[in-house]
Amino acid sequence: MQTIIVTGGAGYIGSHTIIELLNKTNYHVVSVDNFSNSNPQAYEKIRSITKKKFDTLEVDICNEALLNEKLAAFKNSAGIIHFAAFKSVPDSVADPLMYYHNNNASLLNMLRFAKNNQIRNFIFSSSCSVYGNANELPVTEETPLKKAESPYGHTKQIGEDMIAFFCKANPNFNAVLLRYFNPVGAHMSGEIGEFPITKPNNLLPIITQTALGINSLTVFGNDYDTRDGYCIRDYVHVSDVADAHVKALNYVIEGKNKKNISLYNLGTGNGVSVLEAIQSFEKVSGKKLIYTVGPRRDGDVIAVYANNTLAKSELHWVPQYSLDDMMLSAWKWQLNLEKNK
Ligand code: NAD
Ligand code: WQD
């Protein structure tokens, strides 16, 4: 049985991806996480949803000696999916060095582990934040990247460049860079989602917490030059994002890739305004959301959404879940978290 190493497997997107891997493939999975932004409970939830076994290692991937020691038993793995990173834009502005260290040292160590052990297939979590305030909409993979708006976005640009140069020097190594737009929602069972370690910054968890009265939503501006004045984003269900990883992994392991580095946008292609997101939440939850409209947030892009034609045609990835599904699953998960407090 081939083994896949998943770094950051206890995290939000990593845990949903392990579920898809266990449910849809025969790969053996080993997750590597230090729980810096997650909780070991995620592993129990994965086991209870899938009824399947997988291995877990607790290690800081930045500690290369310990990483190599712990991963020694998995040297013959067929591929690596590298999620582990810090992801908060404001935290990265406050402490850039922590972000450059964690995000880029961990990537470097995983690439070195791959090189030293001839592990040839690598999937990397990138972000639409690499596009910044893009010149064109929808954004294609060819849209030129702008100077990063934050150290976080810059760590992803550097990560993509590191992988590209590594691929150029190592023609036998295959990498897929996946640029996620706005992953939201939770597994449709409502049994697993994002375990909040700190106060969330992203819209969806703030909406669901506000509906329960444990947070208060301030909408960052409604005077933008968009169809209703609110910012527009491409929200994509986390299980669809997870499914794209399974497809990307099979694509390279089965040798279907034409180049040794491929790049895909992962978004639904639909631009949704903050107001439309709120209205969808109100519809599926049956709850009226009390919120205020405040000033614009510094650094917010006005509108960004994906052209996902390439992921559809090459990976055969077709997002399955609607905006209402995203809202309903996020709400079910929030209610579950509250119930188990
Ligand atoms: P997350 O914080 O929920 O998961 C990341 C996981 O990596 C956590 O479990 C954390 O404990 C672990 N981790 C971090 N640094 C580590 C280290 N040095 N050693 C071991 N484990 C470490 O985040 P997520 O939302 O699941 O994001 C996964 C990836 O996707 C990240 O690379 C992130 O930058 C990227 N991404 C996320 C989004 C999003 O909106 N969630 C959007 C675009 C890209
Ligand atoms: C979405 C919309 C806000 C909170 C960030 C990262 C990006 C990627 C995804 C990792 C915007 C509005 C939000 C609030 C609001 N992550 N909003 N009130 O900024 O699109 O992207 O997460 O790679 O890199 O930058 O996501 O969820 O913060 O905001 O009005 O309290 O919700 O203005 O229009 P964003 P978000």
SSE arrangement, N to C:
EHEHEHEHHEHEEHEEEHEEHEHH
In what order do the strands lie side by side in the largest sheet?
A: 3-2-1-4-5-6-11
Calculate the mean pLDDT score and round it.
97
**Given the helix and strand composition, which structural class is it?**
alpha/beta
The number of helical elements comes to 11
Largest sheet, described in full? 7 strands, parallel
Total strand segments: 13
CA-based gyration radius: 19 Å
Helix content: 40-55%
The multimeric state of the shown protein is single chain
The 3D shape can be described as globular
Poorly predicted runs are none
Ligand identities: nicotinamide-adenine-dinucleotide, UDP-4-deoxy-4-formamido-beta-L-arabinopyranose
**SS strand fraction:** 15-25%
The N- to C-terminal Cα distance equals 39 Å
Write structural notes for this entry.
The chain has 341 residues and is of the alpha/beta class. The chain is built from eleven helices and 13 strands. It has a seven-stranded parallel sheet with strand order 3-2-1-4-5-6-11, with helices on both faces. It has a two-stranded parallel sheet with strand order 7-10. Helix 6 links the parallel strand 5 and strand 6. Helix 1 (12-24) runs parallel beside helix 2, helix 1 (12-24) crosses helix 8 and helix 5 packs parallel to helix 6. The longest helix is centred in the N-terminal third of the chain and has 21 residues, at 96-116. The radius of gyration is 19 Å and the shape is globular. The model has no long low-confidence stretch (mean pLDDT 97). The structure holds nicotinamide-adenine-dinucleotide and UDP-4-deoxy-4-formamido-beta-L-arabinopyranose (WQD). UDP-4-deoxy-4-formamido-beta-L-arabinopyranose (WQD) binds at residues 87, 89, 127, 129, 182, 201-203, 206, 217-220, 231, 233, 274, 297, 300. UDP-4-deoxy-4-formamido-beta-L-arabinopyranose is lined by residues 87, 89, 127, 129, 182, 201-203, 206, 217-220, 231, 233, 274, 297, 300.
